Amino acid sequence: MRTRSKRTPGIEEAHPFAGMSKVNPNAAGVDIGAVEIVACVAGDESTQIVKAFGNYTVDLQSIGKWLGEHQVKTVAMESTGVYWIPLFEELERQGFECLLISSRSLRRVPGRKSDIVDAQWIQTLHNYGLLESSFRPQAELVALRTMLRHRGQLLEHRSPHIQHTPALAPGASVQKALLQMNVQLSQALSDVTGDTGQAIIRAIVAGERDPHKLAAMRDRNCKKSEEEIGKALTGTWREEHLFIIKQSLELYDFYTRQLEVCDAEIDRMYALMRPDWKVDDLPPLPPKKRNSHSKNAPQNKEEIRKHLKRTPAPTAGYMILSNTRTNENEVIV
To answer: Alpha helices of the chain — where are they, by DSSP H?
Structure first.
């Protein structure tokens, strides 16, 4: 015979933090939004003090001063995008210990309806040592990472101007304009950005229309014959598409020059890291993959390898962030 389970007694008062000791008694919680920032510090035994600030530099300085008046030593914050960066750097400059908290670990808590409550909840969790900071690399690595991300964006912006990539850029490109004139360069060459493709495209922009003269520019390692390339380069030369090719090529060259300048700046930043460290000879790189058309690597690969050998390795993953909005007046709740 199955025994009947005990019935749950009536409504009981819950104290989720009863019996827990405060790990960070001088802790503050901050919720960061695009327009306003809400900070929360501990008040009396059963109260918290919440105050809203703007996001101008003078407001960030005021936040640090206000936190100092309440004897705060460590600050936990949550935000989205890049809104947290100015406050994080300003509070670190003023001597506070800053923790950046993943928004995913805070969304699991139900019932939070405003940014004031968000700031209170962050402060409470930080007070009891229940938050773990996301990885924040050293300042020099932050700057280098910014430049490397910018380089990636330059590559993404350059590619659609030469290749037909509708997913990236549904507009005009060199390859798309050629296809509309039935100049099948992409069928004749596996890579239109290679030496042969670049020579042919630049000759077309310069005014050459003879398919045999264009085909004669093929590289000796090209798999297709000169005759077959000449057939692929026979098309209907229309002025509007030739104009698009000219401008697309100019944009491609512009981004290429910007990439060269960016690579020089990245190389300079690498060289500033641990310049006194000596790097022994590195093992040779593996041979280039067959049929690889990648041309996005920096020119000075060996120097970059030596720089990377000196670069301090990160110890954790990157941060995940989120944001919200708030009130303006100081409130005791």
So the answer is: 57-69, 84-93, 104-107, 115-127, 139-158, 174-180, 185-188, 195-206, 211-215, 226-232, 239-271, 301-310
pLDDT of residue 19: 58
Q: How far apart are CA 306 and CA 315, in angstroms?
A: 20
Q: Is the dihedral of CA 296, 156, 137, 68 positive or negative?
A: positive
Q: What are phi and psi of 28, to 5 degrees?
A: -130, 155
Q: Decide if 50 is inside a domain.
A: yes
The pLDDT of residue 265: 92
Q: Which residue, 39, 18, 10, is CA-closest to 27?
A: 39
- Same domain flag for 96 and 164: no
- CA gap 134, 136 in Å, rounded: 6
**Do 161 and 264 have their domain in common?**
yes
Query: Based on the number of CB atoms within 10 Å of its own CB, is 144 exposed (0-12), middle (13-18) or buried (19 or more)?
Result: buried
Domain that holds residue 186: 155-268
Residues 217 and 196: their CA atoms lie apart, in Å, by 6
**CA pair distance 70, 77, nearest whole angstrom:** 17
Angle formed at CA 151 by CA 146 and CA 153, multiple of 5 degrees: 95
Q: Calculate helix-pair angle for 195-206, 239-271, nearest 10 degrees.
A: 130
Q: So what's the pLDDT on residue 10?
A: 53
Within-domain flag for 83: yes
Q: What is the mean pLDDT of each run of 10 residues along the chain (333 residues)?
A: 56 58 88 91 88 95 96 88 89 93 68 78 88 74 86 91 60 85 87 86 93 88 84 91 94 94 88 67 68 62 65 43 34 36
Return the percent helix, strand and coil in the chain, to nearest 5: 40, 10, 50
